[in-house]
């Protein structure tokens, strides 16, 4: 499972870097800002595709059930509620309207992802109960989800982050397809088609960001880039100790990096005027290291507190299948 942890670590770095750079107005129109903006097409898609891959790899032995859905989502409720209160307090202190009750239903800051993940899993559960598709059916489901996302069918349904869940659903299902194919992988014509579509979409997205045209944010472009990135990393991601280590703490890093960066900026960076790139680097380091240290301390001194920091599912921690754990995911 090292490759998946490396992919998680890479996704973590992209998320933390995206928010660190995005919090600096002077960088938004720069080359670095434009490059970071392109990461928006692969940050969260990569996270959720990894979850889909693990599910697809185990699907024959363990199809998602209602009990499985509740187990997967219940571990997200404590940190979601706690972080909603923390983020609301930060907004209130900064003079912004803080409505924690409304945020529990709509997801504030980056917490929309937890809601969207829960909705994606319940859609998958319903699909499994109704159809239990095979390989072709999974491909069809992924393509239908991509069409729904591109058409914006649920684009205005913001409660429980349903709009964003259907943005992520094609990537989750693509991860399921890759995991279900397992060692066999995708046929080379299919891989080539996905890569070509991704490169073309990336060129359109980069041109659109520079020119400010609205189609740069098209969901269809996002699907093409996301699928090509997930496929490429699943086949060619090298193993680095640093990324592997970060990947093992991916959930607490994702949950806490943004509030930590906000507190750091308020307490230190706004009072000590550091160079912009030093401030960005400091946000990245604090956002990654602090949650890792918090988990290690909690494991040793207060194991019960881990559920509020962020605990990865036992399914995600264990090898996919002993002898096949290091198999190429695509």
Automatic annotation (TrEMBL):
One protein family per Pfam: Acyl_transf_3
InterPro entries the UniProt entry points to: Acyl_transf_3_dom
Domain Acyltransferase: 3-288
Alphabetic keyword roster: Acyltransferase, Cell membrane, Membrane, Transferase, Transmembrane, Transmembrane helix
Compartments where found: Cell membrane
EC number(s) recorded for this UniProt protein: 2.3.1.-
Principal cellular location given in the protein's record: membrane
Membrane topology: Multi-pass membrane protein
Domain of life: Bacteria
Molecular function, one GO term: acyltransferase activity
Residues spanning the membrane: 38-55, 76-92, 104-126, 138-159, 192-209, 215-234, 246-268, 274-298
Family that this chain belongs to: Belongs to the acyltransferase 3 family.
Family annotation (PANTHER family): O-ACETYLTRANSFERASE WECH
Protein name: Acyltransferase
Organism: Sphingomonas aurea
Lineage: Bacteria, Pseudomonadati, Pseudomonadota, Alphaproteobacteria, Sphingomonadales
């Amino acid at each position: 499972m090292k490759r998946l942890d490396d992919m998680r670590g890479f996704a973590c770095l992209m998320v933390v870097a995206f928010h660190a750079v995005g919090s600096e107005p002077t960088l938004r129109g720069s080359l670095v800002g434009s490059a970071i903006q392109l990461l928006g097409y692969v940050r969260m898609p990569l996270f959720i595709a990894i979850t889909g891959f693990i599910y697809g790899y185990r699907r024959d032995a363990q199809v998602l059930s209602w009990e499985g859905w509740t187990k997967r989502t219940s571990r997200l409720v404590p940190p979601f509620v706690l972080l909603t209160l923390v983020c609301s307090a930060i907004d209130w202190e900064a003079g912004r309207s803080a409505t924690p009750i409304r945020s529990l239903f709509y997801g504030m800051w980056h917490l929309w992802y937890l809601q969207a993940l829960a909705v994606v899993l319940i859609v998958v559960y319903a699909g499994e109960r109704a159809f239990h598709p095979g390989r072709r059916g999974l491909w069809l489901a992924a393509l239908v989800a991509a069409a729904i996302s591109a058409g914006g069918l649920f684009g205005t349904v913001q409660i429980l982050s349903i709009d964003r869940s259907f943005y992520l659903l094609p990537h989750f299902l693509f991860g399921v397809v890759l995991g279900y194919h397992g060692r066999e992988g995708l046929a080379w014509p299919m891989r080539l088609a996905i890569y070509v579509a991704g490169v073309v979409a990336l060129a359109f997205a980069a041109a659109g960001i520079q020119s400010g045209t609205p189609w740069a944010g098209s969901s269809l472009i996002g699907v093409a880039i996301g699928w090509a990135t997930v496929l490429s990393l699943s086949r060619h991601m090298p193993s680095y100790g640093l990324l592997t280590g970060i990947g093992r703490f991916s959930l607490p890093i994702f949950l806490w990096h943004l509030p930590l960066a906000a507190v750091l900026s308020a307490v230190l960076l706004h009072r000590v005027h550091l160079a912009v790139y030093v401030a960005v680097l400091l946000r990245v380091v604090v956002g990654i290291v602090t949650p890792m240290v918090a988990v290690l301390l909690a494991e040793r001194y207060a194991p019960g507190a881990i559920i509020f920091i962020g605990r990865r599912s036992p399914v995600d921690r264990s090898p996919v299948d002993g002898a096949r754990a290091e198999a190429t995911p695509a």
